Amino acid sequence: MSLLFTCVCNQPERLLSAIEPVREVLQTRDITRWGLSYVQAGEVLLSRHPKPVKGTFDFFEVLGSLCSDYVIGVATDDETYRGNANTQPFRYKHWVLGMQGDIEDFSEAHDALEAHLPGFLGRGIKGKSPAEYVLYIFLSLLHDSGQIDDHNLPTKDCALALRAALALVQKVCSDTGLSGTLGNVMVSNSRSTLAARLAGPLFLRRLKHVEDPKRPETEFRSVLVVGAESALGEGFEELPAQSILCINRDLSTDIIPL
Description:
Elements: E1 3-9, H1 15-19, E2 27-31, E3 33-40, E4 43-49, E5 53-58, H2 59-63, E6 70-76, E7 90-92, E8 95-99, H3 110-114, H4 119-122, H5 130-144, H6 155-175, E9 185-188, E10 193-197, E11 202-210, E12 219-227, E13 237-238, E14 243-247, E15 253-257
Antiparallel strand pairs: 1-6, 1-12, 2-5, 3-4, 3-6, 7-8, 8-9, 9-10, 10-14, 11-12, 11-13, 14-15
Helix pairs in contact: 5-6
């Protein structure tokens, strides 16, 4: 079983406070590898662990004392893509992407997808998984529009590029004769985050708490999105099928059709 989640909060030192009440939703079992992206002092960092974990795996435990306002985590049990180069999330500069799911025989689409990439992006691909190719197709579209280096890219523009990238990858796979569909995707540029529901359910939890009404700076807000196979209980709302959740820099959210 794979697990994909993202958490965005306005007070990095309270990241665990946002997750702790529902930490059980970030647990899975018998995974083959896991990875985590996070932002500290404005720098996007990766922690990848390409070795199997038997029994219960708990993302809350591995977060430890991490302070970050943007986090994406991916844990998977698939046996197809091994090694550090195939361990999610994937990063390019300030962009990070994680994805659930797989497409059987995806390697047959590699050449056709790489034909859509400028040379400098094509050379950046180190692994073989669909998630990495989705990221680089997405980046190529941003490059075409001159937005790849825009740290403050509006979520609307980001969503348009993600929508087009997912459609292109799916079309290439279909044209190549591959069956299956892409899974849920989360992408962030450390200023905003998108979560696209393509396959199984995605669940959203918003948190808002004000410690001192007289001091606006004490307001703590967070948004947690989790890919799960069934309902996660009170406090969570299921995102519509074929939709994109846009989490803006101020933690406001918009849901648009995919």
